[in-house]
Amino acid sequence: MFTGGKSFVSLPPAFSNDAKRLLVCTGNTVSIFSTSTGLQTCELEGHEAQVTSVIVVPATNPTSKVLCYCWTSSLDGKIRYWDFAAPELMKTIDIRFRIHSMVIPSLLHPRNDSTGKLPDLYAYISTEDVKQEGKPSSFGIQKCNLTKSRIVGGVTLAETRKPGHVTISPSGKYIGTCEKRKLRIWEIPAKDSEHVGYKKVRLHHTRSITTMAFHPTERVVAAGDVTGRILLWRGVGRETFSNSKSSNGRMNTDGEDRPGVRDTDDADSCTTWHWHSSEVNVLFFSSDGAYLYSGGKEGVLVVWQLDTGKKKFLPRIGSPLLYFINSPDPTLSSISCADNQIQLLRMPSMEILRSISGIKLPSSHMDMYEGFGSVVVFNPTAGLIAVPAENYRVQFYSLFDDREISQVQICERNHQPGDEITVKVNLVALSRDGSTMCTVETRLPEEGIGSLVTLKFWVCGSQKKQVSLSTVIYEPHRDAEISCIAFRPTGNMAVSSSHGGDFKVWVHRHELTPKDETVQRSGWKCHAVGSYKKKPMSTAAFSSDGSVLAVAADKVITLWDPDRNTLLAVIGDSLEPITNLTFIGKSEYLVSASASRGSKSSNPQLTVWSMSKLCVAWSYRLDIEAITCSMDDSTFAVLARSKPNGSADESSQHAEDMILLFNAEKAVPLSVWFVSKAQGGGLSFVSSDEDKVSGTKATDEVLAYINGAREYVLLNPHSEQDISRQRGFTNLDDTDTHGYASVYGELPEFSLKADQTAFPSMPSGKTWKGIFSGPSHALPPLPKLCSDFLESLLERRSGVVE
Amino acid sequence: MAEAFPVKPKLRPTSSKLTPSPEAKYWRSFKIPKDIETTPSKSFTFPINSIAFSPLAPHDFVATHSASVSIFSGKTLEPKPTISSFSDTAAAVSFRCDGKLLAAGDLSGTVHVFDAKSRSHLRRLKGHAAAVRSVSYPRAADKLHLFSGGDDSVVKYWDVTTEKSVFNLLGHKDYVRCGDASPISDEMFVSGSYDHRVRVWDVRVSNASSVMELNHEKPVESVLYLPSGGLIATAGGNFVKIWDVIGGGKLLYSMESHIKTVTALCMGKVARGSGEEAEENRILSVALDGYMKVFDYAKLKITHSIRFPEPLLSVGFSPDCSTRVIGTSKGNLYIGRRKAKVESEEVVGGLQWKIVEDDPGRKVPRPSYFRYFQRGQNLKPSEGDYLIKRPKKVKMAEFDKLLKKFRHREALVAALNRRNPESVVAVMEELVARKKLKKCVSNLDTEELALLLAFLQKYSTMPRYAGLLTKLANKVVELRAEDIKSSDQLRSCIRNLKRDVEEEIRIQQSLLEIQGIISPMLRIAARS
User: Fold this and answer.
1) ipTM score here?
2) Do B428 and A450 touch (CB under 8 A)?
3) What is the pTM of this model?
4) What pLDDT band is residue A606 in, cutting at 50, 70 and 90?
5) Could you tell me which residues belong to the region Disordered (chain A) (predicted)?
6) What is the distance between the alpha carbons of residues B37 and B503, in angstroms, rounded to a whole number?
């Protein structure tokens, strides 16, 4: 069993010390990407539940920059310590609470090694104590001694009702958490031990706080709220945290000169900035503390100059922002976007260098509109899926490589992430050989004005990289929406069926100029129109040899000759409208599923029809989400949803979705798998490659199931043997040129006779452009730069050459 | 990062017609020059029987109509004063090979010779008993003789200086209506007659009978020696025939694409680029059906055809490929001219020379001059230079800029002011996608609303836009009823709109009626 399609943006990622790797929490594992190529290099596997935080052990001196150690915490209650260069698990700590968040302040302190003995390492974890059934679980922030692998008893910093995300200041001096309308901040003593007292400060606000950030050097705290305001407290905890000497004098000044600070909050002043129109998700101080980065639902990264409040923008990122992380390399940082994409930014100039994108997640708006089902489409021969995304694009995603292949802009329109969706790519179809794609986009009307359905045919080039638009058809079925598009397995023909009561057969035509057959125009034209008693056509399918076209007209199935457009037969009379129709491989069976979407008291049915007798072979009462058939034999698989809870005769816990594998001739399922989140999922047989998947024969097909959350799994339908895979990770190789070569290009090769003593030049750690790019105030201090600069120029003698 | 997409109108279906071939483009590039107010407005009312171009630059041309011959400047296409010393209708005209003399026949049977420049009458060649419809000078070098053919079915070879006929060439049995001289020999010429025969004459063989006789099978209206001297094209009836003279008068091809009688032929050239090799010869034929066809006799194919609204009688094409003249039976002269590019280049060359001359006198500017700071700004890159291009500025329409700033009402008004219905509809569709159209409409002030109503009146019944605009018109009236009632301007707009909509409804009803009549018939036809 091979799974994929994980979310990259469930948690903030972490950079390695040399900023060449990016550690991303992907479900139960941590994936490591190269920042120079954007490809995955390796994966840390070990946790049994979702990983909730990853912390890279920072380098304390330049020599330890190459060290690659990290701590991870997970919902399975374990904290693990890894060497992610290898990758190798070093240590596991089991604390038996679900961990929602973890910070390790002592990693950020400069260690005092005066005693020669390393002090114990303490982590602060946001835990969830799962109690018995019926009782709400309790949450708290606890302290854990990582060196001794145990929780420090009795130290609970806070009890909360919801799992809180713990934020740590860049200096490691403070940790904080936001809870509803207040911030809690604790000071971590410089010498942390098991029994220390904590000073704490609370800051209050009138709205729910969504995120917070600490200033790297000063006692400044920023917080964002749900309305889009950014609050900036300066001088936080001057009374509490500073060693109070003249507390009396200070009390007098209270209430006089503290603009914006609420009641008894311990802060000097509170400023409010308001630019974002909705919830602020990202707050991050730049490493020198001069700027504050903020971002939210609009998909715009805003850079605030802290002293003046002046703004700079990085607009049109295209998706709500979730996290912003900077790297040890000052020229590199990353933004995590809600569409499962991590953008790497070149820093002072804020250009997007490259993006690491996972499978597009289903839109949160998609459930709002009936008929806006955005089901992923499989290309069984190439092992690709086409995923319609929110920003009018279709993403091609490789199932076996678990990475994005390409994206196609379907509709040339700007996407504003926060807006209500009015234009949507709602149908995608791929021809069997993958050479043609067909998309349908719909624009919703505004009070009955201006609705538009557009059908587009695309030609896919080799390797699915170039996709070019072939034909655009506006309103193919007047203003009725298209319910289904099916390609004929043989030849250039497609059929589109509409709820408006007709279907159209489209054919691909080439036009040659009569004089010199050089100019070629090709396009799709309407070949025939058919309708049956003006009934809404809900789905259509071609038989595997392409000789019969089956179109579901409401509750019956009509069979047509696609070439001559004549009605051959009408079969069936189901209780509910037919939603799914597939010919089973090369056998004589047709399988149909019927259910009325939405209504609870339905009579769902799965029916297998014998085409030779034109009657029902067998049927089940199942609510079917998807049907797929294998290309050669007569097996097919269905994705069946569990019954709605209202009519369930069993308890809701046992109601599970399942995948059933049938042979068309027998009504007994060959095998059953139980799955979850089948709503909006998809199922397909995918032909597997011998190179990529071991454990199956070269001719075998693999069953691919993708659930509503766009996580997919590949199953071997015929045997118990699991599909294992050697993942084709690319090696972390850095092709950047350094030092002299990056400026002047490669040196010409000297002949050895002319110059016996060749000095091999040592590449420096940084490129030239890296040192000096950006405005001068954003550069590191000159003494720091100078050595780097000189180092990059110097040629180092590595040894004596004879 | 997503780029900013401009608002684009819907695509239109591309016509199934193929893109014009380079040759069709070439023939279409002969356009009526805008700076000349002649033709077809300045018409002669009488049929233009004949057109001839001077063989010398600037290739003046003449046209005969009624009893006069008009000379046009080849450079400006302006008409020069006409020669009108004819006693009867002038019928045929020909330039001498040096372009200095001009011969014209008239219906009284006289051939007149004029000085082309001074228009003075030099000779009168009398001898034909009936109208002279064909006059031609030898094309190669002979300046002393000319041929003429008349309705008395005689072809005469004249010595111009003495005004005497050298030979009477007999053989035709009907009117001789056309003739042409060989382009390579001064002694060879061809004549065509209404007795369906085309005769090739050689004056060196003075036995007064033709060297060759070709049967066109229709009264011959026009005959043309092709530049090689070995081929002849003849026109008569509604076809054009190509004959091989050297090969013993063999018929090579018969072009039958005109619908009515072909009246005239002339040589045309397709100039591609520059140089002699780039020119290809074509036969231009005009007919009473109003078509001018371009025939490629090398590939034996029609390469282009243009339709004119009147029956065509005569055609001429300047030897430098710049002008094409067609005369019609109603006296209109269609002059087409191609734009010349050569002259402007010469001017540029002169200027550059000047600059170079000035340069040595100028010293390298010192920093105290303002010019110092501008130096090198107009420097052109040399060949080996590596060019760093400035990123191309994206041009955005005003409504695009406004849409980008979310100023929706202003964007709609900006689009309406541009008066391009496609872009207005595109902006409206974008506003629908943003769910802002209704708000825009309700925010428009009176003048902007009048603009919108005028737009709706004009385009809401057009089938391409009707789907969106009729619904929108309804909505606008619904939303702004109060404002419309209170303003006179808007009320008149609404009145116009109402009138147009009623008209459209009438049309639709009559169309439905027609459909009602036709559909049973179609049903019956399908059944049988």
Assistant:
1) 0.78
2) yes
3) 0.69
4) confident
5) 243-264
6) 40
